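Quick one: structure for this chain?
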Amino acid sequence: MKLEVLDLSVNFFNNTILSFLALLSNLKFLNIKSNRLEGAIHIKDSEIWKSYSCKVLGHLTSLKRLVLYKCEINGSLALQGFCGMTNLQELDFTNSNLKGGLPNCFSNLTSLRKLDLISYNIALHSLKSLETLALSFNISALQ
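Got it. Here's what it folds into:
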């Protein structure tokens, strides 16, 4: 499929929508904000993916912009799966109820220019190319 832009925002999709995304290898922009992606979502090498779920995001290597704003994930996200997304320029985790820090391999995201972490209690590692960083409501991230 040649689809490059997909906006699925403000729906009631749950984790099952993610299996469809595996067909979209040319995707450059994905917006799945304000959906109901509940539970732990493991991006890479997960038992959950073997039965269905979200390793698919790690395979979207053409993706330049990913919006996970307000996805109601309500858990932890195995972020290592994003480390292979070397074309990623914008990543938005705003209000997604995620917990944890960025893995060291995020320094491999050399194209990443914008990272939104609003209301995400996160520890930061080296992101040398980053030009924009939104850290509203993250008091402990800077301490």
